[in-house]
Design goal:
alpha/beta; Rossmann fold; six-stranded mixed β-sheet; four-stranded antiparallel β-sheet; 31% helix; binds adenosine-5'-triphosphate; binds magnesium ion
């Protein structure tokens, strides 16, 4: 036990209240745990507070109330360097100068791991090579970021996060802009890093079916609080989709993966009526 917290919890939010400047609170009284070694995914509609929560969990946004604990230590009392040795985040809209090469970007992930008195060593080079390879970027290592496709750039950011050798990786919509094959590649990479290297992962996804298939647990966020948390089967329900997403639909089961699968039928927003789909003729 560290500070009274179980060692099985790597990241914990307690009674978080979050907001921007003088605006109203966006998140209130939020409790959330990430277990060591799990993949947990936040799902929720646009504007429900997912990115805000992730930023606070990564020490980017200071909470108005409550606290975040990383390995039992209050994260806002830790230095940037100390946090970066344990946690990496891929933000929703990362920005980097377009004239950096992929390798330059990934090299920056080593910053928190390098002693100030020496440049990169053999281990750093191994890790950078591994990070590039894991993200399928070895052949693109010398390309400038500005010349990459959206999907390639996204993988460069993932490689940067991996180069930090974090214990926990936070990702905000890591598959946005990716075609379906690259989406599946990213999800497979995350699952491999989780299963083989024990990397703990907390992410935001909009694709509910991918979230259910690739996560140990889902956390549904509704207007800045946790609506439901648990195994995908218990969170991905028709009732949750109605109340949180305002969508009517049916839950089935994927015959290949056995994961719950949601088929959306129509939006309940603005009293819209179900309309015929193209497939209905
Ligand atoms: N920098 C900011 N300044 C002021 N308000 C903000 C800022 N960022 C987010 N908000 C507000 O906080 C609320 C939650 O936003 P957040 O980005 O956390 O939502 P989200 O669940 O990640 O949505 P999305 O699915 O669209 O990414 C929204 O009402 C948003 O307008
Ligand atoms: Mg967001």
């Amino acid at each position: 036990m560290v500070n009274g917290q179980s060692e099985t919890i790597i990241l914990r939010a307690e009674k978080l209240e979050l907001g921007y400047r003088r605006g109203e609170a966006v998140v209130r009284d939020l409790h959330l745990d990430v277990q060591r070694g799990e993949i947990v995914t936040l799902v929720g509609p646009n504007g429900s507070g997912k990115s805000t929560i992730l930023r606070a969990m990564a020490r980017i946004l200071r909470p108005r109330g409550g606290a975040v604990y990383l390995n039992g230590a209050a994260i806002h009392r830790l230095s940037t360097r100390k946090v970066a040795q344990e946690l990496a985040i891929l933000p929703q809209h990362p920005i980097a100068p377009g004239d950096l090469t992929v390798r330059d970007l990934v090299q920056r992930g080593r910053f928190a791991r390098q002693a100030w008195w020496r440049a990169s060593n053999l281990h750093d080079r191994d890790v950078i090579g591994w990070a590039l390879d894991s993200a399928g970027l070895t052949d693109l290592a010398d390309r400038r970021l500005g010349t990459l496709s959206g999907g390639e750039r996204q993988r460069a950011w993932i490689a940067l996060a991996l180069a930090q050798e974090p214990e926990i990786l936070l990702l905000d919509e890591p598959t946005t802009f990716l075609d379906i094959s690259h989406q599946l590649e990213v999800m497979a990479l995350l699952r491999k890093l989780n299963a083989e290297d024990g990397l703990s992962i907390a992410m935001v996804l909009h694709d509910l079916n991918q979230a259910a298939r690739f996560s140990h647990r889902l956390i549904a966020i509704h207007e800045g609080s946790v609506y439901a948390a648990g195994a995908p089967d218990t969170v991905l329900t028709e009732g949750m989709l109605r109340e949180v997403f305002q969508v009517e639909g049916v839950i089935g089961r994927d015959p290949h993966t056995d994961a719950p699968v949601f088929t959306p039928l129509y939006s309940l927003r603005g009293g819209s009526e179900p309309r015929g789909d193209a497939a209905d003729g």
